[in-house]
Amino acid sequence: MDEIRYTPIGVVRSPFLPDHYSTGRRIEPKDTVSTIEVFPEYMDGLRDIEGFSHIVLLCHLHLTREYALVVQPRSDTVTHGVFATRSPRRPNPISLSVVRLNEVDGNFLHVADLDLVDGTPVLDIKPYFPATPDDEQVRTGWMQARRQQEQ
Amino acid sequence: MDEIRYTPIGVVRSPFLPDHYSTGRRIEPKDTVSTIEVFPEYMDGLRDIEGFSHIVLLCHLHLTREYALVVQPRSDTVTHGVFATRSPRRPNPISLSVVRLNEVDGNFLHVADLDLVDGTPVLDIKPYFPATPDDEQVRTGWMQARRQQEQ
Question: What pTM does this model have?
Answer without folding.
Answer: 0.91
